[in-house]
Automatic annotation (TrEMBL):
Needed co-factor(s): Mg(2+)
Name of protein: ADP-ribose pyrophosphatase YjhB (NUDIX family)
Similarity comment: Belongs to the Nudix hydrolase family.
Keywords: Hydrolase
Keyword Hydrolase: yes
Gene3D superfamilies: Nucleoside Triphosphate Pyrophosphohydrolase
């Protein structure tokens, strides 16, 4: 037998994790006779940018509009005697793997492409993939072994605003971490923004009130891994500056920001917070001790 024809393929894929599930695509029977799941993605067209290619392939295979990271990992597979169609070939595959994410309110995945290389898309339990209960390609195992959630640190300013025996709180919408929980009014400090000014801006957006910042009572922080409002899998560290603040007597709070991470604002009796009658974030309980 002479030398086998050389075949090289460059493809782009994405690791998309949401909570305890991962988005995978099932290969068509013509590619794998037994059920086998892989990362959403596929081959680059000639001249196509890899990031554009993986976004296109994700939509074709899952029906979802994804965002992918700027950086990627590259995996090489060389099989000198691979089956290529009905013939043997000296096959070399380069797989560019990005981290990806889709909106938290994205619809259920579905295959859009007709007669493509995949026939099903689904969010599958990550634990079942890791313990081999679900059959996956070697690429999935390699990519997950190297995957780390995106590290994000966020500086925020929050206000402790009291009225008699009540505390002004805001409720987190479905777009935020810990949806449905109550927290102090406030939010992220923009790059170059003075924290006190950020506090005034955030209280106006979330509560419709003009506040006057006072002294910094304390610094609180929180660290956890989860799904960000964007849908990205993040290792999140929040650093919170807790300010004393005041608003005008008789001021009535209302949510001003549309489609933000706050869906309700209210004066909440401190006794209800201390008795655990509503779900609040740790920063609220921490602030009450200062």
């Amino acid at each position: 037998m002479g030398r086998l024809p050389k075949r090289q393929r460059v493809a782009a894929y994405a690791v998309i994790i949401r909570g305890d599930r991962i988005l995978l695509s099932r290969l068509a029977p013509r590619i794998s006779r037994t059920p086998l799941w892989t990362l959403p993605g596929g081959g680059l067209d000639h001249g196509e940018d890899p990031r554009e290619a993986v976004i296109r392939e994700i939509h074709e295979e899952t029906g979802l509009d994804a965002v992918v990271s700027e950086q990627a990992r590259v995996y090489s597979l060389h099989n000198p005697k691979a089956t290529h169609g009905e013939r043997l070939a000296d096959y070399h595959a380069l797989r560019i793997v990005y981290d990806g994410w889709v909106p938290k309110d994205a619809p259920e995945p579905r295959v859009v492409e007709v007669d493509g290389s995949t026939v099903e898309a689904a969010w599958l339990p990550l634990a079942d993939v890791l313990n081999a209960s679900i059959p996956v390609t070697a690429l999935v195992r390699e990519a997950l072994a190297d995957h780390r959630p995106f590290e994000r640190q966020r500086l925020a300013a929050y206000a402790v605003i009291r009225r008699e025996q009540s505390l002004l709180l805001t409720r987190i919408s479905a777009l935020g971490h810990h949806a449905g929980s109550w927290t102090l009014p406030g939010g992220g400090v923009d790059h170059g923004e003075k924290p006190a000014r950020a506090l005034v801006r955030e209280v106006a957006e979330e509560c419709g009130l003009e506040c006057v910042p006072g002294e910094v009572l304390d610094v609180h922080d929180v660290h956890f891994t989860g799904t960000a409002p964007s849908g990205r899998h993040e290792d999140f560290h929040g650093v919170h500056l807790i300010f004393a603040a005041t608003v005008a007597d008789g001021a009535v709070p209302r949510v001003v920001e549309v489609d933000g991470t706050t869906d309700e604002v209210a004066w909440v009796p401190i006794a209800d917070i201390e008795a655990g009658r509503l779900e609040v974030l740790d920063v609220v309980r921490h602030a009450l001790t200062r």
